[in-house]
Design brief:
By secondary structure, this protein is α+β, with helices and mostly antiparallel strands. It folds into two domains: 7-29 and 78-220; 224-410, SGNH hydrolase (Rossmann fold, 3-Layer(aba) Sandwich), CATH 3.40.50.1110. It is built from eight helices and 21 strands. Strands 1, 2, 3, 4, 5, 6, 7, 8, 9, 10, 11, 12, 13 and 14 form a 14-stranded mixed sheet that branches. A five-stranded parallel sheet has the order 16-15-17-18-19. Strands 20-21 form a two-stranded antiparallel ribbon. α2 packs across α8. The radius of gyration is 21 Å and the shape is globular. The relative contact order is 0.16. Residues 231-399 form the SGNH hydrolase-type esterase domain. GO terms for molecular function: hydrolase activity. Pfam families: Lipase_GDSL_2. InterPro entries: GDSL_Rv0518-like (IPR053140), SGNH_hydro (IPR013830), SGNH_hydro_sf (IPR036514).
Length: 419
């Protein structure tokens, strides 16, 4: 599998200079940044006492729960571990699907490997070709139209009145300069970038198409408390198919849309247990009101660690998650070749890991291997479910999503209530 490290991409559009640091957009499972960023300094953390999903009315009868106040919970999220530099004021307009209903929203932004100036932010309903389908609503930060973030910092906006239905798509426009946190692959088609200050422009933004998620990490929606899942994984979870992708085709988004319950995405291309454990707080546990976590990790570790180490890492990760969420663990998908190491060792380790998961994670298992492997060979995909022997195709993501839906529905997961 091709791996290009330390790539610098320079795009010039008039006064706009954009530099992307990190892996190329079309890389596969072995993608890693040349040097891992430091752990985020985050503005907001999850309350230590967790989320009370069904509180009891102390003054009423035991079977009469008190009304539950609206709660901010994520309807969209990406880990954004890489960094994108913008020189000169630049406007991004990202088309963002949001899988949570409610009456108000908050936006969380992250800086990259340097400071970031957010000059102006607006939010509206997304229209065609970068246009807005509603009036742009200003977004503020402690009452100001913008803010400055230090290196690897997360900031959350003030609440914005903005009614949302499940699966609505937003146009989030922001004028920025500096270093933005970024994904390694294209996931948000229908997004644009243009040099200058254009966040309030209602018509098509113009400029150039720009599908790489940058800056905007999370959309939180205030609505009735519900189950909210975060998916932890590598490129398979992030949604890599060919590098020019759509988050709406990822297994987590497809399952979320079927269930009517938020499943937000904290997958990172190339990730293994080491980075997942090291950066867990800033990329997943920083989210407000999560109740469940789905872990699909280990594929990138198969050729480099003994089986007992892989199992110990999975155990440690699930123990770290315990105070915050119920944890579901997915079996590792077929792997038809090894990008590094000996393939025979990779095959043996994958089988050992899946056997350990099935033995030790009952009943909270999502058996992705069982629904994707060929009938006559556990190491091969069913025809049409993969693109390269490692990553699932769009059809493969649909099969994975169907299995997530089946398991979660069997365990009582129900759609969120309408606001």
């Amino acid at each position: 599998m091709r791996t290009r490290r330390g790539m610098v991409l320079v795009v010039c559009m008039g006064a706009l200079l954009v530099t992307q640091c990190g892996p190329a957009a079309d890389e596969g499972e072995s993608v890693f940044p040349p040097s891992a960023p430091a752990m985020d300094s985050c503005v907001e953390t999850l309350p230590s006492d967790g989320l009370e999903v069904a509180p009891v009315n102390p003054g009423g009868t035991p079977d009469s729960p008190r009304p539950q106040p609206p709660l901010f919970q994520p309807g969209f999220h990406l880990a954004l571990r890489w960094s994108q530099e913008v020189r000169g004021t630049t406007t991004f307009r990202l088309r963002v699907p949001v899988n949570r209903a409610g009456q108000r929203l908050r936006l969380a932004f992250r800086s990259g490997d340097g400071s970031l100036v957010l000059r102006r932010v607006t939010v509206a309903r997304a229209g065609p070709e970068g246009a807005l389908a509603s009036e742009p609503v200003p977004v503020t930060f402690s009452g100001a139209p913008g803010t400055t973030l230090a290196t690897r910092t997360r900031v959350v906006s003030d609440p914005v009145p903005f009614p949302l239905h499940f699966c609505d798509e937003l146009a989030v426009s922001f004028e920025v300069e500096g270093q933005l946190a970024a994904s390694a692959i294209e996931l948000l088609p229908g997004s644009y970038v243009r040099s200058g200050a254009w966040a309030t422009t209602p018509g098509p933004l113009g400029g150039e198409p720009w599908a790489i998620p940058v800056g905007l990490a999370t959309v939180e929606v205030e609505g009735p408390p519900s189950r909210v899942f975060v998916a932890l994984g590598d490129s398979i979870t992030e949604g890599y198919i060919n590098g020019h992708d759509d988050i709406r085709n990822s297994w987590s988004f497809l399952a979320s849309a079927q269930l009517g319950v938020p499943i937000v995405n904290a997958g990172v291309s190339g990730q293994g247990f080491y980075d997942a454990l090291r950066l867990l707080d800033g990329e997943a546990l920083v989210l407000s009101g999560i109740t469940d976590c789905i872990v699909l990790l280990g594929t990138n570790d198969l050729s480099g660690s003994p089986d007992i180490k892989l199992q110990a890492d999975m155990f440690l990760l699930t123990e770290r998650l315990k105070p915050f969420c119920r944890t579901w663990v997915g079996t590792l998908l077929p792997k038809e070749h090894a990008s590094n190491g000996r393939y025979e060792e990779v095959k043996s380790s994958r089988l050992a890991m899946n056997a350990w998961i099935r033995t030790n994670r009952q009943p909270d298992i999502i058996d992705f291997e069982a629904v994707t492997h060929a009938p006559d060979n556990v190491h091969l995909f069913i025809d049409g479910l993969d693109v390269d022997g490692i990553h699932p195709s769009a059809a493969g993501h649909r099969v994975m999503a169907d299995e997530v839906v089946r398991v979660l529905r069997a365990n009582g997961v129900q759609p969120q209530e309408a606001p």
